[in-house]
């Protein structure tokens, strides 16, 4: 399907502001590996082909092992993720797929056991950032791989 609209051209000022916000979450101290896992898992849940493609390539460029990328969809059953990563993935899923009664206390408590208050807020903002990008990319049908050269993703070796 062809892309519907280039939102960055249609609204450069809002795109720039959202990009700045998104980059701030990446500089929050959570670490690149955790951000990559959050971005990719939320994108999988949302069914955002453009973002799954993009964040898989970014993660590989950042040194993530391919096997962990393959296991991300089944992280609960996989032995490849540590307790902190599991908590971040649990929070990512809970905030991405909000239930009718919000986030259960058990999930909040499990995540809180791994992250301090500042990290918990940063984690939440990171989830919020990727969910927004997913909605833009899905809504306007961004084409997977179409911006690889512009974003420097060609060096991932994935195409």
Kindly describe this structure:
This protein is an all-alpha fold. It has a single domain, classed as AhpD-like (Up-down Bundle). It is built from 9 helices and no strands. The mean pLDDT is 95.
Helical percentage:
55-70%
Could you give me the name of the CATH homologous superfamily?
A: AhpD-like
In whole angstroms, how far apart are the ends? Answer: 18 Å
Order of helices and strands: HHHHHHHHH
Tally of individual helices = 9
What's the CATH topology name? AhpD-like
- How many domains would you count in the coordinates? 1
Which structural class best describes the helix and strand composition? Answer: mainly alpha
Write the layout of secondary structure elements.
Blueprint: H1 7-10, H2 12-26, H3 32-46, H4 49-61, H5 66-71, H6 83-96, H7 105-112, H8 117-139, H9 148-151
Helix pairs in contact: 2-8, 3-4, 3-6, 3-8, 6-7, 6-8
Short description:
The protein has 159 residues and is mostly helical.
Structure keywords:
globular, 9 helices, mainly alpha, AhpD-like
């Amino acid at each position: 399907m062809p892309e519907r609209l280039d939102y960055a051209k249609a609204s450069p000022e809002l795109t720039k502001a959202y990009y700045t916000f998104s980059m701030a979450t990446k500089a929050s101290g959570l670490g690149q590996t955790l951000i990559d896992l959050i971005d990719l898992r939320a994108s999988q849940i949302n069914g955002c082909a453009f973002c799954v493609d993009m964040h898989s390539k970014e993660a590989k460029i950042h040194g993530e092992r391919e096997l962990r990328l393959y296991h991300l969809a089944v992280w609960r059953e996989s032995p490849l993720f540590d307790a902190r990563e599991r908590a971040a993935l649990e929070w990512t899923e809970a905030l991405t797929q909000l239930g009718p009664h919000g986030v259960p206390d058990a999930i909040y408590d499990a995540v809180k056991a791994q992250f301090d208050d500042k990290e918990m807020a940063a984690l939440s903002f990171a989830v919020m950032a990727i969910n927004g990008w997913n909605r833009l990319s899905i809504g306007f049908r961004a084409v997977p791989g179409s911006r690889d050269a512009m974003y420097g993703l060609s060096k991932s070796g994935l195409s």
